[in-house]
Give the backbone structure.
Amino acid sequence: MSAMHEQVRELAYRLWQEDGAPEGRAMDYWLQAEAALTAIPAKPKAEPKAKTSAAKPAAAKAKTAEPKAKKSPAKPKA
C-alpha cells in the first residue's frame, strides 16, 4: 500500500468517526480525504519582495499623514 493511500485511508476514517460513523458513505469520506490531502501544496512559494520605496504599509502611511504637534509661538525680539 502506498504512503498516499495510507494517508487517505487514515484521514477518511477520522472524518467518518468525527461525523458519527454514518453507514453507506465510505466513498464520500474517501473522496473528501483525497481532496484535502492533494490540495495542500508541497512547498509554499516565496512571495516576491516588494520595493521599499513604493510599498509602505498602511500604518506607516497613516503616521506620516498626521499633523505635527503645534509649536509654541515665537518669542518677540526685544
Observations:
- The chain has a mean pLDDT of 78.
- The chain is about 45% helix and 0% strand.
- The radius of gyration is 30 Å.
- The CA atoms of residues 62 and 68 lie 13 Å apart.
